[in-house]
Amino acid sequence: MLPGCPTWPQEFADRYRKAGYWEGVTFGEMLRERAVSQGDRTAVTDGQKSTSYRELDEKVDRLAAGFYQLGIRPTDRVIVQLPNITEFFDVCFALFRLGALPIFSLPAHRSSEIAYFAEFSEAVAYIIPDVYSGFDYRGLAREVQARAATLRHVIVVGQPQEFTPLSGLYIEPDQSLPQVLSGNIAFLQLSGGSTGLPKLIPRTHDDYIYSLRGSVEICGLDEKSVYLAALPMAHNYPLSSPGVFGTLYAGGKIVLAPTPSPDDAFPLIEQEQVTITALVPPLALVWLDSASSRSCDLSSLQVLQVGGAKFSEEAARRIKPELGCTLQQVFGMAEGLVNYTKLDDPEDIIVATQGRPISIDDEIKILDDEDKEVAPGELGHLLTRGPYTIRGYYKADQHNARAFTRDGFYRTGDLVRLSPDGNVIVEGRAKDQINRGGEKVAAEEIENHLLAHPGVHDAAIVAMPDEYLGERSCAFIIPYEMVPTVTELKNFLRERGLAAYKIPDRIEFISAFPQTSVGKVSKKALREMIAQQLSSAPEVH
Ligand code: OOB
C-alpha cells in the first residue's frame, strides 16, 4: 500500500465487501475479462482508427512489460497528461496492471502544476503527447525535469525528440508482473482544491470500480452503448460517471472527440451513432445554440449528461425539445460521491435538482455552521461518507484534519438542500474556490502566486457572475506604491507556469479589503462589489 493514504477503518471495509460493493477485482482483471467477453468488438475509436477489446488488452500487456523493463515498479507515481487519444487507455491500464499509479493531470496544466505534482509525489515518469492543440509538451517536460529530481523518464506519444517514445515500449511480455491487489490504490486523481497547493486523491481499484458499476446501472449503459468522450477524459466526470471507464466496464464503445466543440463532436455523433455523452453547462449552451443550424443528425443521442457546475433550470428545460434526448444532471466530486438524476425521473426533478447518490450506503449529512443537522429541506453544508468516498488526501494530514470529520465524513464545501423526494439541490459553495464553468480554481493558490509579484501587497480572488461560464474569477489587489498593470500581472502568472483557466479574468485595484466582524477579508463583500459593478456596467469579454 502507498504510504500517506488514509483508508477506510476495518469495520467499514468489511461492511463494504460484505455488501458486495467491493468485489475484489482490479482494473487489469476487469479489462482481461472484457477482452474475453467482447473480443473483436470495438472498445475505442477516434472515428478513423478503432481498437477492439482484445487488441487493447494485448497492447496493455505489452506496454506493461515495457514499463516494467524501464524500471517502473508497483506504487511508483507516473504523471499522465494525455488528451483524448487511444494511447490514454494503453497507458492507464498498463500502469494499473503493473500496480504503478497514474496521476491524472489535465492537458491544460502547465509547469507550475506539473512540477508540483512531480515533486510532491516523487513521480518517476511523466507521459505526454508531443504537440497537442498547438502546445509543445516536450518544452514543458524540460522545465518540469529541471525541477523534479525524481523524474527519470519523460515518455512521449509521437515525436519524442530527446525523450523516450511510447511506441518503443510495447514489448513481448517475458515475465509475470507483480500481483496487484484490489484494495490497493489504483491512481491519484486531482482535487478541485480550495487551498494553496492542489491535493491528490487516492482511489482504490475496489472503490472506483464500484462507482463505475453503480454509474453504469443508473445510466443504463450496456454493450450497445456508445459514449462520446468530449470533455478531457482525465477528469473524474468523463472518466467514471460513467464516462470512458464505465463504458469499458459495460463492454460498450468509446468515441474520442479531440475537442467538445460542435464542429468536432456533432459529425462523430452521427458517424458513430453515439448514445450518451457528458458536458459541462457552458458547453451544453453552445450545443443548444448550434444544434438547429447544423446539418448533422443527432438522433442517436439518448442521454446528455450535464454536470461539474450548476446548470440553470432555464437551460435544462431546453435539452429535450431542442436536442431530442434525455437530460441527466450529474453532481459529483473527484473525492468520491456522485449524484445523478434518474433517466425516468419526472421532468421537474430532472431540470431542477442534481439527483441522488449512487449508493444506498452513501451517507449524507447537511449541517449548519455549528455542525448541527439542519431541519429537513433547509440549506446547509454537505458532508458525506461511503463506499467510494476517500477518507483523506494523499500526504495531507493537517488538511485532512479540517476536510474530514473525526468519524470520516468528507466536508464537500458545497451548500445544498434536499428536496422532499430526497434529491440534492446545489445552492452554493462555502469553499474558497471559483467554479469556472466546471473548471475549479482554488483562490488561495492564485493569491499566493500574485503575492510573489513585487508590486502586490495583498490579493483576494473571488467569483464574479458570468452569463456563459456561470462564474469567472476576479482578483482584487492592494498594490504597493508602484502599481503594476493588469497585463503585467497576467503575464507574470503565465510566466510562473499557471494553467490558462487559472489566470484571473479580471483584476481590480483597491486600497483596502472589506472586513468581516472578526477582522478577516470579507470575500462576500468583494463578491457583492464586483457583481454590483458588473450589473451597472457589464464588461464585454
Ligand atoms: C466534478 O468533480 P470536481 O472534483 O472537479 O469538482 C467537484 C465540485 C463539487 O464539490 C461542486 O462544488 C461542483 O464541483 N459541482 C457541481 C456540480 N457538479 C460538480 N456544482 C453544482 N452542480 C453540479 N451538477 O465536477 C464531477 C465529478 C464527477 C461527476 C461530475 C462532476
Descriptive notes:
This protein has 541 residues and is α/β, with parallel strands linked by helices. The protein folds into three domains: 23-352, ANL, N-terminal domain (Rossmann fold, 3-Layer(aba) Sandwich); 360-429, Luciferase, domain 3 (Roll); 433-536, ANL, C-terminal domain (GMP Synthetase, Chain A, domain 3), CATH 3.30.300.30. It has 17 helices and 27 strands. A nine-stranded mixed sheet has the order 2-1-13-12-14-15-16-17-18, sandwiched between helices. Strands 4-3-5-8-9 form a five-stranded parallel sheet, sandwiched between helices. A hairpin with a 2-residue loop joins strand 16 and strand 17 (336-340). Helix 2 crosses helix 4 (87-98). It is globular and about 65 Å long. The termini are far apart. Bound molecules: 5'-O-[(R)-(benzoyloxy)(hydroxy)phosphoryl]adenosine. 5'-O-[(R)-(benzoyloxy)(hydroxy)phosphoryl]adenosine is lined by residues 192, 236-237, 241, 307-310, 329-334, 338, 354, 412, 414, 426, 429, 435, 440. 5'-O-[(R)-(benzoyloxy)(hydroxy)phosphoryl]adenosine (OOB) binds at residues 192, 236-237, 241, 307-310, 329-334, 338, 354, 412, 414, 426, 429, 435, 440. This is (2,3-dihydroxybenzoyl)adenylate synthase. Residues 32-394 form the AMP-dependent synthetase/ligase domain. Pathway: Siderophore biosynthesis. Residues 445-520 form the AMP-binding enzyme C-terminal domain. It holds the Pfam family AMP-binding.
